[in-house]
Write a structure and sequence with these properties.
The chain has helices at about 20-30, 65-75, 90-95, 110-120, 125, 140-150, 155-180, 205-210, 230-235, 250-255, 255-260, 270, 290-305, and strands at about 15-20, 35-40, 55-60, 85, 100, 130-135, 185-195, 200, 215, 225, 240, 275-280, 315-320. By secondary structure, the protein is an alpha/beta fold. The longest helix has 25 residues, at about 155-180.
Length: about 325
Amino acid sequence: MNVAPKSGDRHQSPSIVSLIPSATEIVAALGLTDWLTGRSHECDFPPSVRSLPVCTQPKFNPEGTSAEIHDRVSQLLQSALSVYRVETETLQQVKPTHILTQAQCEVCAVSLGEVEQAVADWVQISNPQVISLQPSTLDDVWRDIHRVAESLGVDGTPLVVMLKHRVSDCMATVQHHLQSHAIAPPTVACIEWIDPLMAAGNWIPELVRMAGATPCFGQVGKHSDWMTWSDLQQADPDIIVIMPCGYDLEKTRAELSPLTEHPEWRSLQAVQQQRVYITDGNQYFNRPGPRLVDSLELLAEMFYPQGVSFGYEGSGWEQIA
């Protein structure tokens, strides 16, 4: 969908630097990819943005196990605004008129405070417009799309309407399957970090309900919470979905041992019933942008593989047990 002004208006095009993947995807979904002049080190969709100058970098070594990364991030956050830094020289070189960032999570991307510090010395010269997103629910994502579109002088309504239609179609498909087969909604545990265990919050419990299931953990619009093995055992969900923040399928598969080798793993109902799934959390569930609708469709496929198919199996999710 392209809602950008006609080519005759291109000389007035903004210069957009997006410092968070979900914002990059919003800009792209609005049809404004050509206006992007810089990105974060994590922005990789659509693939064309990978050639853009990189304006952020992690302050820690992102390689290692889930436990090692957790320890490094925890230590950094004791003395830093976020665990990422802004590449100030690169940012100045691309001369952005708009900078898209976030104020929701200091672990997800560079923080608003880091961006404000980076532009403080040259803001009087360039005066870029800083747009900070803070989504916690699906409705917040719709509002963010409208905010970004409005700031860039385009109409976000067609995109939001299209995404809402997809949500409605998915929910209708799931409800039809449930009713026609007299199926009770399964209980689901969504795991956002493996070691230590973290239950997915924010928009994930909302998506789980939309996909026709009952979330065991997390509150809609609330940050993700740490949980214990005792919590997981007590909930004993019908389905477990593993969606580590920032991990693709390959990395998630490689990091499963703290789960699968735990003494209580085999006692869980989801494991015994072979209803455990891994996902590409990095590309889907962790990014509060247009592809949360894809994430909804992914969940519906996993929950009801006999009646719902959107074509994500193998690329977006895999069954492991």
